[in-house]
Structure formats: structure tokens, C-alpha cells
Sequence to fold (197 residues):
Amino acid sequence: RRRIGVLALQGDFREHLSALRSLGAEGVAIRREAELDGIDGLIIPGGESTTMGKIAAELGLLAPLRGAIDAGLPTYGTCAGMIMLADQIRDAVPGQQNIGGLDVIVRRNAFGSQLESFQEDLIVDGIEGSVPAVFIRAPVVEEFGADVTVLARLSDDRVVAVRQGNIIAMAFHPEISGDLRLHEAFLEVVNSISVEA
Ligand code: GLN
Fold:
């Protein structure tokens, strides 16, 4: 049974914890550095990246999280979680703090105000059929490095899911769609690492 930490400072971490529970994994709410010990994977939830970054900085969590990710901890970010993992953020608030580690440039709130939230059925690499994807004031990936693989694009071609090594990031919210296959795919990444180790 795998232990997956879910950063639980702000946002929809409860939905991630319940998705993990449904899949038979153990979800652990992360609010302190010591709670990173002994986890096999990490989820950064959706919410508001500016607030999440601020709280994480106040708690001294940014560097330990980055250290764990750089050490190879499988990590999955959704929406604000994707922004938290991005090396560079466009339309960030001044002084916005994040974790980084993922070689992408994301744009926050990329869909403007008249299209704040929408759903689209997405084709995601490695998943059979389509996946219902809920976008809420979502970011997009505007640029990415050579080590980054695109997992999904919107019908207008914009990049909304990527993988770089053990890091997976999605601009939408698999934790609220009720379709658990993307969490399942993340747990497969976690399992493949634990088996190697
Ligand atoms: N717009 C939010 C941000 O900048 C992300 C929204 C979300 O996670 N649904 O962090």
C-alpha cells in the first residue's frame, strides 16, 4: 500500500485524498516538513497558487518540497498545483512564490474572464478513450523544455497536461471529475519507482 502525501494548505486537497482512498492508496495530508518522511508520492492540489505559495513559504515548506521533487519523488500537480511546479509563471502576482522543478512556462488564468470554467473531453496519452476534464480559471503550458512530454492538448492545441520524469502536471481537475484513471496512472508511476528502488 502506497503512502501519497497531499499538500493540504489550501485548495481541493480533500478531493485528492478521497480519490486516493477510492483507489486503495493511503493519502497523507502534508502541512509540515516532517510529514514528507516516508511518502512514496506527492500531490499538489488545485486551488489558488498565490495563496498556496504564500502559506508554503511561511511554513518553510517550499525548499523541502523542491528537494523531495529534485530527489525523484513522484509528484502530481493539478491546476494551481501545475502552477506551483512550473519553473516560470506568466501573469503571476508580483512576488508570487512557488516550488518549481518542472521545465515549463505556464500562464495563469489563461482562459480569460468570459470563459472561467468549462469541461472538455480530452485524449490523454496512455489512457484509453477520453477523459472528462474540468477547467476552472485554469493555466496552460505555453513553453516547455526538451525533457517534457505533452500528455494532452485541448482541441485548440493548447498544452494542458505534461510529464517530465516523475513529475506529472495537469491544468484541469481530475480530482473533481469522478474519473479516477488519471490518479490511477499516477499511482502506476509511483509503483514503478518503488519497484526500481
Ligand atoms: N487560477 C488559479 C491559480 O492561479 C488556479 C485555479 C485552480 O486551481 N482551479 O492558482
